[in-house]
Amino acid sequence: MSGQASYLFSTRTSSGLAQKIAQHYGQNLGEINFQQFSDGEFEPVLNQSVRGGRVFLIGSTFPPADNLLELLLMIDAAKRASAKSITVVLPYYGLARQDRKDKPRAPIGAKLVANLLTAAGATRIMTMDLHADQIQGFFEIPVDHLYASTIFVDYIKSLALENLTIASPDMGGAKRAKNYASHLEAEVVIAYKERKKANVVEEMFLIGNVEDRNVILIDDMIDTAGTLCKAANILIDKGAKSVRAMATHAVLSGNAYENIENSKITEVIVTDTIPIKNNLSSKIKVLTCAPLFAEVMKLVHEHKSIREKFII
């Protein structure tokens, strides 16, 4: 057991998840005073001493950019308050889709965020289901990369589905689908898609057989839900008995709720890394990631291995 004190704080937009994490961790969230200026500028001030302790700052960096800025200011505040270590808990890592330069004169946003977090004073990063695993290499500090499979696999098993098939909605997710399938002793199919621009799928083709199969689509995030819904419709047309979708991060922008509600998907299962309005669609089920984060945070604080918390 570590003799070092631990402190938990949260950004404003992630307070719901942070409260659950704190409850499972067995400690109250620390108070932060937010001074808001009339022009929109804000200043977070930690309302207790953290000198010499381990600080956990919990905050997903989904848009607007103020969420990232708020987290950076909190890191700076903890550093200047003489915290011994600052672990930034990022359930959802914003800008992770910008992980490489795939066109001329494009930024690498995921690397920029890594630089900002480190420059602000973070000494450790804890996150879940990065859009690309190699983002861990953008940091020169330890990164604990958790997987929602730890949560999802148990739920899939509870469904007791016969003739189970795991599907990837694109080629990039093939490895993830294969890993899920290996734990569930299921078959794998892949939907191959062609895009002309972001969030718009022009064509989609299915690789594999789904006749009379119960299919679960696996992805790291749902944005507009266009890809998932199109894949689900193709799977049903190819003879699938049912189609469910699982995604860690419920971005759900644009017409996502409407697309899901009008699709042939039976159920969409997500985690609460991003707060969502699940009352807008009867098909959305939210599984909390709070116990997993709380358990790993405890292990990190006590300098114990977190290996047992990884499935995929």
UniProtKB/TrEMBL annotation:
InterPro entries documented for this protein: PRib_PP_synth_CS, Pribosyltran_N, PRTase-like, PRTase_dom, Rib-P_diPkinase
Gene Ontology molecular-function annotations: ATP binding; kinase activity; magnesium ion binding; ribose phosphate diphosphokinase activity
EC number: 2.7.6.1
One GO biological process term: purine nucleotide biosynthetic process
Keywords: ATP-binding, Kinase, Magnesium, Metal-binding, Nucleotide biosynthesis, Nucleotide-binding, Transferase
Domain Ribose-phosphate pyrophosphokinase N-terminal: 8-121
CDD domains listed in its UniProt record: PRTases_typeI (cd06223)
Catalytic activity: D-ribose 5-phosphate + ATP = 5-phospho-alpha-D-ribose 1-diphosphate + AMP + H(+)
Classification via Gene3D superfamilies: 3.40.50.2020
Enzyme class: transferase
Record keyword 4Fe-4S present: no
Protein name: ribose-phosphate diphosphokinase
Species of origin: Riemerella columbipharyngis
